Amino acid sequence: MLRVLAKLHICKLTRESHGYHHCCCSLLCCFRTVSSLTDPVERIPFEKLETIDYHSIKFHQLRQILQECTSAGDLLSGMSVHTHLVKLNINGSIMIWNKLLSLYLKFGHIHYAHQLFDTMPQRDVVTFNTMISASVRDDYDAFELLHLFSKMKKEDVKPNHITFSGLIGACNGLIALRLREVFHAHTVHCGLSSNAFVGSSLVDGYAKQMRLEDANRAFGEIIELDLVSWNILIDGCVRNNSKEHAVRMFLQMLKGNVRFDGFTLTSIIKTCSKPGDLKHGMQLHGCAIKLGLAHETPIHNSLITMYSKCEKGMESPIKIFGSIPEPNIISWTAMISGFVQNEQSEEAHGFYKEMLRSGVRENDFSLSSILPVYGNLANLDQGKQIHARVIKSWFGLDLSVNNALIDMYSKCGSLEDAHLVCMKMEKHDVVSCTTMIMSYGQHGKGKEALEILSEMESEGLVPDGVTFLGCLYACSHGGLVEEGVRVFKTMTEVHKLNPKQEHFACVVDMLGRAGRLNEAESFIDEMGIESDVLVWEALLGACRLHGEMELGEKSAQKIMELRPEGHGPYILLANIYAERGSWEDKEVLREKLVSHGLKKQLGCSWVPLERMPC
Questions:
Q1: Which of left, alpha, beta for 577 (phi over 0: left; psi -120 to 50: alpha)?
Q2: Of all residues in the chain, what percent carry a pLDDT higher than 90?
Q3: For residue 395, is pLDDT > 80?
Q4: Which of 440, 444, 443 is nearest to 456 (CA)?
Q5: C-alpha angle with apex 571: 567 to 577, nearest 5 degrees?
Q6: Spacing of C-alpha 485 from chain mean position
Q7: 3 state SS of 256
């Protein structure tokens, strides 16, 4: 009879849902009296047709069948309904058009959705919220979101808490960071800043910007705090390395009789990241068992990471991993990272092979975790195999994976490959540049390292303390003393960064390698770092290099006072005595080493015996 309605009738016969069947039949009955539907229907559902009478159509039935089309995944029937709506020139019931908009967006037809949005007879807050949510999911830029919000204000549609939570949550790009403050001001103007939904989005957004103080203020504005709000704040504190504040918030939440869940425990367990936190971590582990949350995989994963960092060895993480019914890629990655952190590279490699045998495929995090293994083992062939897997898996565009590749090639002695990876990267960050600077430094190419620093600053990237440490290291090994001094001054005077003991030690090492031992000693006195063992170790190494006995003895004595359990100063000073022919002094020093119960650690070298296939 009717072509389009016949299609709907055929589609309904394939559905098992009684509700879907009933809606289709009702729709057929409603349309039987409309003779104009016998005309051919154009395939493009946006053509405007003549106005006809539609009073006999029940809007709620149209809404219901569109909902059923969306739930059942029946795009064709939904588009057919859209055709009828256009053909009948229906301007009423905005809920129908919103259902249709949701249908197109669910199936990823963004172009159709935008066309429908632009031609809708009227739009309400649900319409705009639907489009904003879709734009956020599809990573539209901030200007698109701002355009939607401006259009919303222009049409005098009042935004609600869902509108602002979507807009605020989408402000993650560099350009959009200021927009978060703009939207925050609008929430205050609309009286929605105290809403838990909006407030939680603000807390999460500011925490991601590393603005914990602003996140705390936004949290304080929320009138009715719920578990989600607490979880977001605690997780934000952890991300901002404010572990003490995270624990305080957790305790405050407990005092407020808010029952925590697995997400809360997963976040708070992350505050345990060093050996001194082991007791606290074990208490949280006990809480998880007591409340029946220990079976959750995310908690298992957090416990694996916690024990890997807080406990020597991997005995506990292995037991926890073995108790996971279905370990996911995060579980495997946590174990691989744990082995790397505990300097068990061979075990990490074996675990990686087991992961592949079990059918679990890598993601960007797992690849970034396994690549350092082959750098530590200096296994270039195996590292290249992983690089091949990176290319095949399309993770070659990931920033963290490329940074790990640069580091791996550098440690394996292949500076050309490291440079090639860096050059092919579409985007660089501070870690990329710092890794490349360290690579050049390890190979004695100080000038190239300083060129990377210059390019980095010209691209608008701000170097951090690790970047300058790499530059100082490169200048030290490249013999660029004056340039290294300028780098140190730039770090302290221009970028206002406080140097750490590693920076001071690099400067002393740089001066010492150049034979300027007196300047190195004067630098230690001027900086007031006489109690820093690293600078004296650097100076002692320079004295060993240049055969300076008197200053070497002074440096060794300082090290023995600051670190009496170390054997290094005895060995280096003994070598200085040997080179000067002071065999008696060397023998006395050796006896002193033995009498203190110290023993020189044996050195070792890596020799590949066989290939290590994946």
A1: alpha
A2: 48
A3: yes
A4: 440
A5: 145
A6: 34
A7: coil
